[in-house]
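User: quick one, fold this
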Amino acid sequence: MKKILSVAAILAVVVFSGCVGTRPKGIKDCDFRVSDVKTVEKAMTYAKLELEMDVTNPNGVGVIIDHIQLKLYADGNQIGSGAASFADSPIPPGESVKLKANLAIDYLSAGLAIFNMIISHSASYSLRANVYYETPLGAFHSWTTVSRFWMPF
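Assistant:
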C-alpha cells in the first residue's frame, strides 16, 4: 500500500509540474519598447544603465509583471544583464505604463563584441527579456525581444 501511495504521489508531482508556467488561454505577452536609457553608475569593469520601457498590456485583463530578467547581446555575445521586479505596478487592460530596470554592461565583453563587429563588417544588438507574468487566469513566463537592431557596414 505504501508503495502504491509513493508511486501515485510521484505521478501527481510529474503531472502537475507540467502545468506550472503554461500560458493561460487568450493571454498575450505585453509589448515592450525602450523609451530612454541613462547611465546611473560607472565602475572599472562595468557600467550600469537604467532602462525606461513603455509596456503595453494588449489583453482584456490586467497583468502584473512580477519580475523580469534582461540580457543584452551584441554581435550574438552576451555583454550585459539585469533584473527588476514590478509586482507593485499592475498594468490595466489595454493600457501602457513606464517601467524602469537596471542593466549592467561588462566592458570586456562589450569590447570583444565591438571588435567582432569590426571584423564582420556588421553591427547587431538585441535586448531579450524573460518576463514572469501574474494574471487573474494564472501565472506564466515567456521570453520576448524588447529591442533588436542589425546593420551591415
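User: anything notable?
Assistant: The chain has a mean pLDDT of 86.
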